């Protein structure tokens, strides 16, 4: 039993599979930086589907560390450490670079969808960020209007002084902005009134609670209604069941993302997925 307990502590679930836990591997910051430099990090794509037409409208780019020894490692292991040590930018630029290249390839294959990239709020403190992002996307020959930047508030957030300026600039440069994990951060509502967001992503915890929790359903419905009034897209993440899908469709939510539709996958698999779903337009 002790042995089992020991094993259990060394592993944790990620995408319904077991992976070695952070504690048991204990990556050093140097090892991560080395991994970024060696481009061991990959962009996985998860489809975003229009709830009314069932068509693929976009994909979210999610960072994965393809570790030569430990295999695929999820962001919960490396993002917090990188953020805490002010090293998240290098990863963000690598992921953006790969996401923009993926977007170009998809467009070349007649799949004209939007690709979303996650941005840590800590990165928004750098006054040159908007410029750097614009350069990377331009170099990939992608129109910024096909790149959505998902802004998440995290525990590491200490108040990015230049956030408003950066977001305004990115918006002026043609990028779409999205509030990620909506409903969990303390200033999400305030952000909505100050920045020209074009998408509101309802946090997956509300969707997961919705089956047994009426309050969660009311929060979801109100968020969808508010998004409509604000003339921004409503997106639900963490859609895991047919029941979730039906509820969101009934509520008039625009877009769904989650394991019920598909898990994040590498670029070749994502292209296959789009072709299979005859999502060429
Ligand atoms: P997020 O942006 O809210 O992304 C959604 C997360 O939910 C992803 O986890 C995705 O794999 C997972 N997910 C999708 N559908 C389902 C579902 O049906 N059920 C459940 N339980 N989960 C689902 P992932 O890939 O582990 O990423 C976790 C977080 O790490 C992301 O949350 C995002 O905040 C951050 N992240 C990921 N990639 C990057 C990146 O390149 N840069 C930055 N700054 N943050 C990133
Ligand atoms: Mg996101
Ligand atoms: Mg989210
Ligand atoms: Mg999240």
From TrEMBL:
Top-level lineage group: Bacteria
GO terms, molecular function: cyclic-guanylate-specific phosphodiesterase activity
Keywords: Phosphoprotein
Annotated transmembrane regions: none
Coiled-coil regions listed in the entry: none
Keyword Metal-binding tagged: no
Keyword Transcription in annotation: no
Domain EAL per the UniProt entry, residue ranges: 25-278
GO biological process: phosphorelay signal transduction system
Protein name: Diguanylate phosphodiesterase
Whole-protein residues included: 119 to 399 of 399
